[in-house]
Amino acid sequence: MADIKWQTARLIPTSGISGQDEAERRATSALLAVMSAVKEFGAVLTKPYGAPANWLETYIEVPFPLNGKKVIPDGLLRTSRGSKTWTALVEVKTGDALLQSEQIENYLDVARDQGFDAVITISNEIAHAPGVHPTTVDRRKTRSVGLHHISWAEILTVAVQQRVYRGVADPDQAWMLGELIRYLEHPKSGTRDFDDMGEPWVDIRNSVTNATIRTNNGGLRETVQRWEQLLRFVAFSLSRELGADVHEVRTRAEQGDPALRVDAQIASLVGDGTLSGEIRIPGAIGDLGIIADVRSGRVTVYVDIDAPQEGRAATRVNWLLRQLKDAPQQLTLEAWVQGGRTSMSELLSRVREDASLLIQDSNKELKRFRVSASAPLGTSRKLGRNSFIESIMDSTASFYEEVVQNLTPWTPKAPKLPSGGRTSTEAAGIDTRPPSSDFTATELLADQKGRQGVFTPPSTPSVPRQWIVPPKPPEQANPATEN
Strand, helix or coil at 275? Predict the structure, then answer.
């Protein structure tokens, strides 16, 4: 009996999933049920789309008439607070299934006719930028109805953050959310993380390696968008492990027009064979930068650090070395001086032996450091052996763990009062005492004794000094007026 392995009963079982339709139906029902049962989880997922923070009503496969036919969205969400009611239709895909434009547009029409607020799509596709939908639809249909997309990877990230870090007040609800996490992480659920650089990847990679890549290469834009999806997935993964809201860094212009960023990445990949990005981690000393050099087959991960604002150049270098005392010695260090266009660069192992290797000019102020690590870049399109995705993920996670999380920014020491009870002007050698002519004889004697450290107060009470006004002379008689 002891050798028998019994299968644990689960709230959301993965056994019995026989195909794509069954996986989608079960994933939809499980997600929506937990969103309604765990208030905190449902609120976090729907708040960005305008829903008030309250308990959710959730339904699956609700039929609606549309142009003489019947359409059945996978789910419906509804919540109210005060006089405000928010309703959204939900469309779900799992596995390799892609969202379809016609289907989404039908749901947008239904939502408009019914006065609903939004249509939310869920799939394994990760949008290449926040607020951008991975499927192209007629924009006119989104004028009165919001269209939003969330990937299963992001849903899992929110679930882990809520369960592990933010907390769920009710223990039973916390257990239910844990069951959803277990289900979403199971291979049979049909939900998965980012695992494919796309079909054009191999041709684009070879063209970059051979220096034959051009801006009109087929699949180039799709490949760059996949890179942006990978950066977002890196942020999701770090968010799960750190419990922080990690996100990709974008300029204000790129936030307003995501196409600008894609165009810039295309120019970089065609020009020098690189793709790049930065990840912002709350509380970290700096943004975590990633450069994938497809042409040379290397990935570089780095962080830029402001140097201390006081001390000699050698003192500033040693400040950095103390923080890197347990870091891998194959790291590369760079140092820039004020106004310098080039940096001094050397391996950490050598700088530990001679800090002057990072000092370009001891007379110039050292302003900034860069710490970086380099590793071979995988080439394979999908997850597995020699995977491009895994090489990016592993390099980023290990660099953060071994370097970035151990670094703290420089802070100046607290200012100190002058010693010996002196004022700041006395400590600076400035004599602010009035001249002796301004003292009375008693005060002058007391001041002289005070200078010698033997000051004793006068025996008689001191009288405030007053201005002495000479008496007005008596008026003289005028002989002309005398009788």
Answer: strand
Rounded to two decimals, the pTM is 0.84
Between the alpha carbon of residue 271 and those of residues 163, 296, 455, the distances in Å are 45, 13, 81
End-of-domain residue from the set 124, 154, 189? 189
Looking at residue 163, the DSSP 8-state letter turns out to be I
Q: Which of 395, 391, 211, 219 is nearest to 296 (CA)?
A: 211
Q: Pick from 406, 425, 447: which residue ends a domain?
A: 406
DSSP 114: H
- Give every residue of the chain whose pLDDT is below 70, as ranges: 1-4, 7, 436-483
457: in domain: no
- Single out the residue of 51, 148, 57 nearest to residue 108, CA to CA: 148
What is the number of structural domains in the chain? 2
- 331: Cβ contacts below 8 Å, ≥ 6 apart: 324, 347, 348, 371, 372, 373, 403
Name the DSSP letter for residue 289: E
Contact (CB, 8 A) for 67 and 96: no
Helix, strand, coil distribution of the chain in percent, nearest 5: 40, 20, 40
Query: In which residue are the tokens 């019994």 written?
Result: 6
Q: Is the CB of residue 317 less than 8 Å from the CB of residue 355?
A: yes
What distance lies between CA 397 and its chain's CA centroid? 15
